[in-house]
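User: Hey, my collaborator sent me this sequence without any context and asked if I could get a structure. I don't really work with proteins. Can you help?
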Amino acid sequence: MSANGELQREGTDYTGQVNDSDVEKSVLSGDHLLNTTVSSISWRDVAVMVKHKETGEPLRIVDNVEGIVEAGEMCALMGPSGCGKTTLLNVLAHRPTNAREVNGSVLINGSPVSRATIREMSCFVEQEDALIGSLTVEETLDFAACLSVSTRTLSAKDRISRVRGLIKAFGLQKQANTLIGTPIRKGVSGGQKRRVGVASQLIASPTILFLDEPTSGLDSTASWEVMSLLGAAAKQNNLIIIASIHQPSTSTFNLFDKVMLLSGGKTHFFGPVTAVEGHYHAVGHAIPQHTNVAEFMLELVNTDFVAYRGPAQKHIDYLQWAWGASSHRRHVQAAIAEAESQAHRVTDSRNRAPSGTKPSSLSTILTLLHRSFIKSYRDVIAYTIRIAMYLGLGVMIGTVWLRLKPEQSSIQPYINGLFFGSAFMSFMAVAYVPAFLEDRLQYVKEYHNGLYGATALVVSNFIIGIPYLYIPVLIALLFSVVSYFLVNFHPGFHAFSVYLMWLFLDLLAAESLVVFFSSLFPSFVVALALVALANGLWMSTSGFLVTPGVLNVFYKYAFHYWDYQKWVFEGMMVNEFSERVYACPVIAGQCACMYRTDLMDLCMIRGQGVLDQYGFEPGNMWRNVGIVLTIVAGYRIAAWIVLSLRR
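Assistant: No problem. I've predicted the 3D structure and written it out in structure-token form, which is a compact way to encode the shape of the chain:
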């Protein structure tokens, strides 16, 4: 679990209390970053096919590219928008590309490697990095360290030192205790958030670091600082860094060792940055003095804004042919061939890989629980507002159904109150959708970086959802205390406790439904609509609007029996009516009882008569509890399957 408490106890004076030399050592050098196993990553004949959006025909967005980056080097993938650089980056990192077909070879030390192996030794920084807005900068880095390295390998003291060092190195001292930021609570700036995203991956000590637009949202100075730090880390520790980058400044561009220029998915140049000017001079495009080389290269291969497509495309084809015929390409091919001739497998990765250096499954789950705990009590939208919503619902029900009397005229209002309270409690669980979608985005990023799988997410999410930082219990308790006694439901502590239990199970099932649909459709609007639709279906088939005896066969057997609201409604009805009696009115000297029971001669209605109308029998409470828990487990297992298949 996070050592956040230790960080706070020891203090966090980033400006003077931490020795600068220790910081630099912890960030840029040392055993935790030193790469002694990976000498190169190379790729050849990489081609990616997709379906054309308009014609449906196969379209190559990456076309037989090749390259090699050796230990200690930082390589830039450049090109105009849509040139295929992000797709290539995903292929190199063995990440999903949503492509129709992917061909070619990606080699580590000249040998093919599995997806699992490359995930163990690498990290990937997304262009839009998924960070939890309700965590501070310091907590974000600390949890990243806890999820990537076992406490048996990295002590709490070393982890704290690494966190502090990265905060200082990335210029985030003043923001260390600032929240990343939520939709209603301002946090760090966009540029600072990008730096946190990069730092959170570097703290995992990868051998290979992939970055998609790492300078996005940064000014030129911050871009240079970030890339300068990464370049220094690569050289001092023999790391390999490959980054797609759009339009770097001259100073940032010169930090790279190698550059690959793509246009239309094809290679136009690959090699040392220092060789760019010589290559383009040789093909008749000398770079003018005092010109940003990166801008010159991009303008040369960008045809998006040309007036005449035909001549421009011929010019692009010529430049691509010139690269294919150049000595630089032959040098690249020779380097790849040499790496393959000296191929050796990665047998040890001190940075991230072998079993024993990664956290155990239990440790990962505990870390996720701790992170969810902090996220929960700070997430105003998901929790504080939800509590206010449910409390308001309780007040509304308590005052609308105010002080009902145990009389025949109150029987139907009692039933209506039970249904309305339970149904709308579950319906309002849609407020949990954005909170889980944030967790899912974080999971996708961390899964692709090899930190944990769907099991850890589902287990931790379910465990935190049982007491859920007291949230569902607190919601159910507040709602029950306010509404139960105002309405005058069945008096007594036992009856109140059973009512509270059913509300809690109702919320647990409703949130499990949210988890399933949000996993299946990770879109706020779609998930919200489907959860609302499902709740409407459950309300219609629960047995209140249409009694089980009247409900048509299709809905009865297709939905009624696995409708959690049906079992909650039945449990509440039995709790309310099984042991109560209700007075009948006397009209013209006769008892006018709507329900015929053995107490009719006394002008009373035994509550069992009401239950008989719905076909509910007492004595089945624990069976029904088991059924609801089975439904909850079913939703969670279904969510696990979806998360395991859709990443």
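In plain terms: The two ends are 25 Å apart (CA to CA). You can pass these tokens on to your collaborator as they are.
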